Amino acid sequence: MTILGQLGAAALSVFIFINYGFLLAGSMARIRARVQGRIGQPVYQPYIDILKNNARRTAVHHGVMFFLGPVFRLAGGLGTFLFIPAILNSPLFANFSFSGDLLLVMYFIFFGQLGMALGAGQSGHPYSPIGVSRGLAQMSAFELPFILSVLALAIKHNSLSITAIVQAQQGGIANWTVITNPLAVIAAIIAFLGMSMHNPFSVVIAPQEIPIGPPTEYQSGLLGMLQTNRSIFNAAKLVLYVNLFFGGASATDGVLYTLSASVLHSVPVWLGVTLGVVTMVIKTFLLYFITVFVGVSFPRFRTDQSIRFFLFVPTLIGLAGLILARL
Amino acid sequence: MNPLIILAVLMGTAFTMPLLEKVGVKPARLFFMAALALLFVISGGILVNLLNGAPDLEVVTAGFQAPFSINFRIGLAEAAVWSAAALVLLIGGSYMVHREEDGMYDRMLYLILALGVTGLILTRDLFNLFVFLEISSIAVYGLIGRGGERSLQAGFKYMIAGGISSILFLIGTVFLYRLTGTLNIDGMAAAAGSGILAGTVGASAVFILAISMLIELKPFPANGWALDAYQEAPSGIGALLSSAQASAVFIAFTKISPLFGDRLAAVLGGIGLLTFFFANLMGMRQKDEKRMFGYSSTGQIGLVIFAWFTVQGAGLPDTAAWFIVGGLLLTHLFAKAGLFWFSGLSDKDKGEGGKGFLHKVLPSALAGIFVISLLALPPFPSFFAKMELVKLLVTGGSWWILTVLFLGSLFEAAYMFAWLVKKTKAECADGGADTINGDSLVVGNRAGPDILTDSPAVEVASMLKSSTSLWVAIPALALVGLSAAWAYMAGVFNVIAMAPFAAALLMLILSFLPGRFHGFLAVIVSAAAAWWIWPRTEGIDRIFGMVFLAGGSLNLFAGLYRKDRRPGFWVFSLMTVLSLGALVLARTPLEIFMAWEVMSVGAVLITLQGKRAAGPARTGMLFALGGGYFLMTVLMSIGTATILSPAVVAILVVIAFLSKSGALGLHVWVPGSYAEADDDATSLLSSVISKAGIWAMMIFSIRILPGIYGLDGPELWLQAFNSGSFSFLSGILGWIGVLTALVATIIAVFQEDIKYTLAWSSISQLGYIILAFSLFDHFGWTTAIYLSINHFLFKAMLFLAITGVIYRVKTRLMYKMGGLIAPMPITFITVLIAIIALAGVPPLSGFGGKWLVYSALIQGGRPIQAALAMFSSGIAFLYLFRLIHSIFLGQRKDDSLGIKEAPFWLILPQILLIASIMLISAFPTVILKPIMAAVAEWMPAAIGFEGSTLMSAIGYWNGSWVMYVTMGVFMIPLVSLLIGTGRKTRKVKQFNIVFAAERPHRPETTHYAHNFFAPYRKALGSLMNPVGRKFWEGSAGGVTAVSSAFRRIYTGNGQTYALHIVLFTIAVALFAGVFA
Predict the structure, then answer these.
(1) How far apart are CA B922 and CA B224, in angstroms?
(2) Which among A312, B52, B379, B779 is least buried, having the fewest CB atoms inside 10 angstroms?
(3) How far is the CA of B733 from the CAs of B310, B643, B794, in angstroms?
(4) Do A307 and B1015 count as a contact with CB atoms less than 8 A apart?
């Protein structure tokens, strides 16, 4: 594929998954509202928010770094997504995954977070560093179970290439990591709860005592950029998790593909890719539902509690998963 | 000239002294000094003759040949010690005269002492020896007693001991004369050879003679009288007692030693070693300076005795034997004399209410030379001597003896170095004002007076005024000369090995020039060295050589930001940087060890230049020396018949180098040293010097250790550590590395002081490098070198940036800063780039390091270590964010409103470093290809490039593409923001934030910075327990407690001391089997 083609493909896949991210956020908010006995916002509410924020004039800022914070954040979200191959065997959705393997994705996640934290820091609002302090502390803790489960995968498949890991899980649900190494997946899912910052790990953005934490001082277009990032970044993390633990989505394989293949004699490429995207959407939706389910069911941990929590039970499970992978 | 004349001259001058005194004090002094000068001229002339190849000088008396008359013999050893003693006597005389402590009797006794010393060294007749012994002793009793009532008591105690010794000597002589029929020592030795002395009577006679001489040499524990004498004697007399007199008695002792049987020799050697050990052990608790030197003196003489019997036992030829014994003896002679004189000078100075004589450059340098030479560090003769001595012990497999020797040395280093630190650094008083460029510098609420504010001219003038202190320079010069001689004999007198010392000497001589001149000189010399070394090295050596020398030059350049003189900083920095170059070029074990010791001691001395660095520097010195002893043991076992198992050798080497790199457990000296060293010096220490341990571990693995076992190449050796029989050791090393990384990172999170944060961060980064190194494969070592270079880049950036910040805001506490991004934007950018690189966030080069280290560990089958390394690298974000936020972001304090960007001298190196990091981030092949090629020389390649993508067996990484994609995704929102809303916004004033419709009161209450990670502390604070520090403090406490306990035996009571001597004699007799 030419560079231009590559850019076009990247733009398309970003566009699709950003929109998916918006819809996901909207639908989950509605689900959460229903659980709490409210009607809730419309599913398209995130679109309204984004449009509104971007339409408003950004009147004031606190300095260059404050300005660059959301840029870093969005670049981090986009980059993370672009380094992950979204759909297996589809050059259109392979993104720039040839730049690096799983380690690249794991570390690129920090790019946006670091930039955002710095930008928020320049605002001079004490709530921002308080939120960052909590967020970083919690992040460093949930990283450990996540790392352990990733290592279990790497050992099992003897590879850190996401493509290779997805490839190895093809050919039926029995090959999925969730079946082959359920312990690693449990550890990773618990870490995912932390990453998503829903209850019980929502103290980072604690709306009551430190109104939404780091982004306190952001408004208008800058806030819009942060919201855009939230959807693409969420999508990126979900796609990564599905790729690593739930068989990913392939343009040439999978339940939907097999079904259509049994109907049609040969599945055209565009249909295969579409089915791949649909598979990915279904899987990520279900995965995200877990966090919402937990989020509405539990109260919130204090930061030190969540640190101790992550470093104890999930870490032990992750270790067990690692041992399982080495057996 | 016949040396007998000088005896006549000395005695004649002594006896005419009362007469001359009648003429006037001045003529008396003139004759006094002239006699001493003549002594030096004659002895020196004879030495020169002998050095030119003349045969040993035989002098007969009374016209008969020996053994029918008394004869003198002067060989090279005698001539050397004699002329050295004469020099010391000459300076001592001048010292006495200048201080006007020279009554008529003093001068008489002094000349008599000179006579006694000369006779002791020259005579070959046993009874004549006794006479000279008595002559010198009587002079000493008198001289000691001249200082007042307590001195008189001390002199009396000395007399009791000397009396016992004399009685024994006479008894021994009588019996030996009866048995051998001669008083000529050579004749006796010949008779002993024929077995006449083999019986009980003979053995007893020899024993009694030996013990009498031994008592004069102040063996432990029968030396309380000597310590009292050292303490109470005037310092000028102490100097002679310790140097000239003790050396003369030792020479006499060596003459009779051929009479001793093997067992007696072994026992005496053992007593020497124990004296060395215990004297130094007890010296550690000593507060009184002169008594402390006394402990050191008895210890050193003990060491010389031990060395003597060791070389005799090993049957070394004379030259080799005196290379060791003479090296130790002459170093002790000059250094101790110089130290005693110093003690006297600073006493006097104190009395005048001055700041302390030693707080000036030249005197500090002299004191430094004396102490450093006593500690057997390069380039002094004692260093080479001790190396050879250790080699003998290693060859003999005497591990316990070696341990005792090293412990004793370490104890001595502890108190002697502490003395040096105390004397050469002004005491820091709370509340004092300090100046740099006229600004008041208050660091951490405490300040010390600047020790170097005196102008050079004032200093030279003050030295000239008390011209005695210029006399003190002579023993230092003598030591420097002897160093050259010993280095020449040891075969390391070449440009490379000597360059660091030559540079240091040159800087010292030029110390009167302004500070920036030194700075420029240092930068030019080290840059030239880098230029010179590039074509002369290859592979790993070249890569590290550039980090050392080019990196060193860059750091030295940054040091120019200070205008004050900083003589210590420039001298030691340049010396250390050049020694790193010498290290890279060194080929023989001796060269390597020498360069290593200079580098490691140099680093401590750099640290010492910091205002409050005294404590950390002392600890650092002990670790540097301790590590050196391990290394010396290994290096000296090369080419000997000793079979140390490879595992033991590897462990010793690793301990030596890890103590330099600051691995967990051996790290306790690092945080304090890095934090308290001068700010720019810390950059040099952390970014450049800390890599020496890594280079050394690699070079030892591939070049040196395999040689010990006669392996042609390193392949088998590396294989053994990679996956063979020693892989468990590499596994342990890996654990040390990863735990170092983890624990140091967690501790860094909780620091409020920026320099401590970065110090702990350095420790943790070195942990990753050790971890990667421990893999012993191509992947791991490539990673280790890549991480080393990266660490050099970003840690230099951080420390230099922070130097500028501290320079401007005058505090090291982060929570007192804030909002500095506005006045110091370039510094902010440096820190930003550096922390992104350190954190390993793509697209900067740090990610390459992370990718390499985790991939290497997973591929090497160490997933748990990989997990912990990743975990700790996640925690690193905490302290990095805290660092940049607390300093540059948040609310700006009122104090910092008027400050400017850091000085040009600091900014320029930072910009160069930023450029380097951006270059290797976008094009990792630039450094990775040479590194991989260098490592591939030694082990099979495990990773390689496909195009610009680095491929391992399990993953891939394309640094260039990561950079392109990141730039792309960064530009999209940036451009859209700029085109869209960005232009219309305006920057609001400070405090204009959403704050419940209020305006924050003060920046101090709004800047969230103190105890930034409180919840983290609550959750994981228990990991902060300073186990390592407690362990070492406990060890030190134990040693000092033992030291105090032993010191109680010295009651100060003359009768007790006499009893000690008697009991000691009986005990030695039992051990030596005299009664058997």
Answers:
(1) 70
(2) B52
(3) 37, 23, 25
(4) yes
What pLDDT does A245 receive? 94
Q: In terms of Cα–Cα distance, which of B496, B524, B905, B846 is closest to B683? A: B905
| For testing contact with chain A, the best of B817, B824, B877, B995 (most A CBs within 10 A) | B877
Q: How many CA atoms within 13 Å lie on the side-chain side of B342?
A: 31
CB contact under 8 A, B981 and A58: yes
CA of A319: which chain B residue's CA is closest?
Answer: B864
Tell me whether residues A63 and B987 touch, CB distance under 8 A: yes
Contact B867 A67 (CB under 8 A): no
Cα(A64)–Cα(B473) distance, rounded to whole angstroms?
A: 60
Q: Would you kindly state where each structural domain of chain B is located, as residue ranges?
A: 4-427+1052-1072
Q: Does residue A200 have a cis bond before it (omega within 30 degrees)?
A: yes
* Whole-prediction pTM: 0.93
Residue B345 near residue B466 (C-beta atoms within 8 A): yes
**Contact list, B864 vs chain A (CB under 8 Å):** 319, 322
Which residues of B are less than 8 Å from A181 in CB distance? none
CA distance A286 to A190: 15
Per-residue pLDDT tens for B5-56? 899 999 999 999 999 989 889 999 999 999 999 999 999 999 999 999 889 8
Instruction: For residues B522 and B679, give the distance between their C-alpha atoms in angstroms, rounded to a whole number.
Output: 18
Distance of residue B738 Cα from the nearest chain A Cα, in angstroms? 14
A226 neighbors A145 (Cβ within 8 angstroms): no
What does chain B come to in residues? 1076
Give Cα separations from B523 to A5, B550, B556, B573 (angstroms).
Answer: 52, 10, 6, 10
Decide if A159 and B1012 are in contact by the 8 Å CB cutoff: no
ipTM entry: 0.96
Residue among B126, B248, B128, B133 nearest B187 (CA):
B126
Query: When comparing pLDDT for B434 and B955, which is higher?
Result: B955
Segment B199-244, tens digit of pLDDT? 888 889 999 999 999 999 999 889 899 999 999 888 888 899 999 9
Contact B1015 A74 (CB under 8 A): no
Q: Indicate the residue of A98, A102, A216 with minimum beta-carbon distance to B961.
A: A98
Euclidean distance between the first and the last CA atom of chain A, given in angstroms as a whole number: 41
- Token pair in block for residue B283: 């010296």
d(CA B1050, CA B1052): 6
CA neighbours closer than 13 Å in the CB half-sphere of residue B932: 16
Per-residue tokens: B210: 């030996």
What token pair was written down for B414? 């502890």
Helix (H) or strand (E) holding B57: strand B57-60
Cβ of A114 within 8 Å of Cβ of B839? The answer is yes
Range A179-196 average pLDDT: 93
**Identity of residue B752:** E
CB contact under 8 A, A147 and B871: yes
The answer to whether the CB of B574 falls within 8 A of the CB of B503 is yes
Query: CA–CA separation, B1076 vs B885, rounded Å?
Result: 80
- Given a contact cutoff of 8 angstroms between Cβ atoms, the answer to whether A216 and A125 are in contact is yes
Complete DSSP assignment for B58-116: EEESTT--TTSS-EEEE-HHHHHHHHHHHHHHHHHHHHHHHTT---HHHHHHHHHHHHH
Of A100, A139, A147, the CB nearest to B870: A147
Alpha-carbon gap, residue B932 to A294, rounded angstroms? 48
User: Which 3 state secondary structure label does DSSP give B436?
Assistant: strand
Q: What is the DSSP string of A99-126?
A: GB-HHHHHHHHHHHHHHHHHHHHHTT-T
CB pairs A-B closer than 8 Å: 247
Tokens representing A307 are: 């640190």
Q: What is the pLDDT of residues A19-40, one digit of tens each?
A: 999 999 999 999 989 988 999 9
Q: Which two tokens stand for residue A130?
A: 């308080």
